[in-house]
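Please produce the structure of this protein holding cytidine-5'-monophosphate.
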Amino acid sequence: MKPQWQPSAESCTVRAYAKINLTLDVLGRRSDGYHMLATVMQTINLHDTLCLTTTEDTQVRLACTVPELNTPDNLVVRAVELIRRRAGVSRGILIELYKRIPTAAGLGGGSSDAAAVLLALPRLWNLAFSFDELLEMAASLGSDVPFFLYGGLALCEGRGEQVTPLPPFWPEQMRWLLLLKPPINIATATVFRSLSPRDYTNGAHSRAVCEALRMQRMPAPADLHNSLERGVLEYYPEVARARELLLAAGATLVRLSGSGPTLFAPFADLTMAWRLHRRMAEYGYEVYLAQAIYPSSS
Ligand code: C5P
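Below is the modeled complex.
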């Protein structure tokens, strides 16, 4: 059967990597409702795949493996519209989005997809945007989107959009990352709204982690702190239960990524990580084994 869109010769396929938050210090609330953050993020090799194909009409089409995400307010559609508006072009595009990163999970999947479009589409269409322009467009799409223009390891401040890339270093003790997504979805806004001032920190955890990584050392576990974790464990018993099961099965460190509900547990040893992966899968959990990745090395 003939497709309803006509492809032109121009097409590209790109990966959009997930992230974990090694730290997430919430420093306080801003007058615009956002929160001031200091967070250390790292991209990991769990990824979505986007295939962008220029079409002969002016439509923006999204074909996504998760039907609920096939909407005009999907961040990838908004990223395309933003690029077209800024460049004053009305070319058509089909975006095929193969989702593998769990959604609304604290792994930055939607933000990473949007950043992948901001990086790939100008190349495909030969549009000359400076990196600063891309950063500004990214920040207008979401607080985490600028980080994904860099990928790798970075300290993110402000509401998350001020990115300082850090020299690549990932401790041996965390070579394997077991990710566990409890069977609930949590809206980031809800988690931030339920913060109490006692969850605020002065950013010392993020500073200590940056310093340890700069010295090529494993950070102190107490500094792998997430200000959102207390509230999530308190309000979502499914997350607290999954955390208990991971600890009982032998994980020594379990942390929430971003606003959750995904938990991550680092391991030095693949055999141990895989044993827990199997155990948690037997309990019926959605689990992944991942590693830190630098997008340019993929
Ligand atoms: O920036 P983004 O749209 O991804 O943020 C989603 C929601 O998370 C915001 O509407 C806000 O409620 C909350 N948030 C926040 N402080 C931040 C980032 C996000 O309160 N620094």
